[in-house]
Structures are given as structure tokens and as C-alpha cells.
TrEMBL record:
Name under which the protein is recorded: CWH43-like N-terminal domain-containing protein
Residue span(s) of domain CWH43-like N-terminal: 4-230
InterPro entries: CWH43_N, DRAM/TMEM150_Autophagy_Mod
Location in the cell: Endomembrane system
Native source organism of the sequence: Anguilla anguilla (European freshwater eel)
Keywords: Membrane, Transmembrane, Transmembrane helix
GO CC annotation: endomembrane system
Protein family (similarity comment): Belongs to the DRAM/TMEM150 family.
Presence of keyword Membrane: yes
Length: 278
């Protein structure tokens, strides 16, 4: 089994653990309210960071959205690091998945679209992590508007690609697993977006919960590539180095040589038509 199988497993372990650490830091520094807090106020006499006691006065500025947890230092530094590292891992996983499909099967529109959406999602994730919502709101929302839809599209394309390439019962089981995760992610994303647009305190808090659920499901989806990455080899890397087009050309050239070996050399007649063909 290839050691590349560690990469898709490391991504959800690193990112999910990382964002929960960021949440714990934001909670410890009184920058956000706890996830189990459902009571919010229009305004408070003191900022959350200056309050004390078991009962906290929270406003919508303290909703524990993932981006809110990573807005203020020191947790913002770790949040940027997690998003930047995670986006790089997403790009590598997407590239290896693309090369593996080309090597084992052949390139197709679904495979190319999956690579493109994965890399676009990584670009949006970098913007989300490095432009905090309280200080660069437009750029942060642009990054989120890129990362969330493209990540959803990525898992849809990969689920469809899994079913298209499946031949064994185990591969179909992986397809069923990815389809279930895709449906859960879609429901979570829709509910998070709808609730985020509402003015209700409860719905805003519910939006944060569904955002957490969506991000965790997406990261776990990347972890399922461990089933295929055991087959990543040096040949997969050579496919990526040569490019999919060169790989197809090499395959056609190999088929031609094989036909010549079976049928023998082809002798051309010395005719004007034959010379023209040369």
C-alpha cells in the first residue's frame, strides 16, 4: 500500500482538530459565545470579553461561526495557518485523484471538472483564512462565496465519478458512502445559507451549527480518498508529469506498435498515391 494514503486521512484530522482548537481559543478569550448558547440580546452593557459570571450577555457579533472564531488574535493566526495548509493539501489531493483516474482508467469531463473545482475551492479557502470577516468583510465573503459552492460541486462531481468508474462491490459501497455525505453536505449548506440571511437570533445560531456540520462533512469526504490512494505509485506521478494528453497519445502509439507486431510490417507500393501518403 502506498504511503500517499496518509494524505487524505491527514486532511480531516488536521483541519477538524484545528478549527475546534481555534473555537476553544476563541471561547477561552471570550471572543464568541458557546455553541450551546441560544440566548442573544440586541445589545449589552459590556463587551463579551469584559464580562464575568456564569450568565453571559451575547449579541449577534458573538455567534460562533467558524469565521468569527478565527477573527481576533491569537486564534486568527492559527485559523490562517489551518486554512492555508488545508488549501494546499486540498490541491495536492485533487491533483493526485486526477492523475490516478487518468492512470487507471482514462481522462473524462468529470475528472477534469473535479480537479478545477477543487483548486478553485482551495483558492477561496485561502481568502477565507487570511481576510478576517471583521477587517476585510468583502474579500472574506468573496472567498466564502467561492469556497462553499465549489466544495459542494466538487463532492458532487467526485460522487458521480466514483459511480462511473465503479466495477466491484467495494467500489460501489464507497460510492454509496460518498453519495450519502454529499446529500448531508447539501442539506447543511442550504440550511446554513437560508438561516444566515434571517434576522432571528435562533436561526443565526442554527446557521452557525449547520456551517460547522457542512465543513466537517466536506473534510471527511476528502478522507474517503484513502480507499483509492493506496494505489498511487510513481507511474501516477509520471502521468501527471507527462500530462493526460501525452498519456493518451502514448497509449495510441503503443497500440499501433502492437498491431504492427501482430500483422507484420506494412509494405507501401511505389505509386504516386503511396508517395503522396508519405
Amino acid at each position: 500500500m502506498s504511503l500517499w494514503v496518509i494524505l487524505p486521512v491527514s486532511l480531516p484530522v488536521f483541519t477538524i482538530t484545528g478549527i475546534w482548537v481555534v473555537y476553544a481559543m476563541a471561547l477561552y478569550n471570550m471572543h464568541v459565545c458557546p455553541v450551546d448558547n441560544w440566548v442573544y440580546n440586541e445589545s449589552c452593557e459590556e463587551k463579551l470579553s469584559l464580562q464575568g459570571g456564569p450568565v453571559l450577555c451575547c449579541t449577534l457579533d458573538n455567534v460562533p461561526l467558524i469565521s468569527k472564531c478565527g477573527t481576533l488574535p491569537p486564534e486568527s493566526c492559527f485559523f490562517s495557518l489551518i486554512c492555508s495548509t488545508g488549501s494546499f493539501m486540498v490541491m495536492v489531493i485533487g491533483l493526485l485523484r486526477y492523475g490516478l483516474v487518468v492512470e487507471k482508467y482514462q481522462n473524462c469531463v468529470l475528472n477534469t471538472a473535479g480537479l478545477s473545482t477543487g483548486w478553485i475551492c482551495a483558492a477561496g479557502l485561502i481568502m477565507v483564512g487570511n481576510f478576517q470577516v471583521d477587517y476585510a468583510k468583502i474579500l472574506h465573503y468573496v472567498g466564502a462565496g467561492v469556497a462553499f459552492p465549489t466544495s459542494m460541486l466538487f463532492v458532487c462531481l467526485q460522487s458521480a465519478l466514483t459511480y462511473r468508474l465503479a466495477k466491484t462491490q467495494g467500489e460501489y459501497c464507497v460510492g454509496h458512502l460518498r453519495l450519502a455525505m454529499t446529500l448531508l453536505a447539501f442539506v447543511s449548506l442550504v440550511l446554513s445559507g437560508v438561516f444566515f440571511a434571517q434576522e432571528s437570533f435562533v436561526l443565526q445560531h442554527a446557521s452557525a451549527i449547520f456551517e460547522w456540520v457542512f465543513c466537517i462533512i466536506i473534510m471527511l469526504f476528502y478522507g474517503t480518498f484513502a480507499f483509492e490512494f493506496g494505489g498511487v505509485s510513481c507511474e501516477t506521478l509520471m502521468v501527471l508529469a507527462r500530462g493526460a494528453g501525452a498519456q493518451r497519445g502514448l497509449s495510441r502509439g503503443g497500440s499501433g506498435h502492437k498491431a504492427e507486431a501482430i500483422g507484420g510490417p506494412v509494405h507501401l507500393q511505389h505509386t504516386p498515391e503511396g508517395i503522396a501518403m508519405l
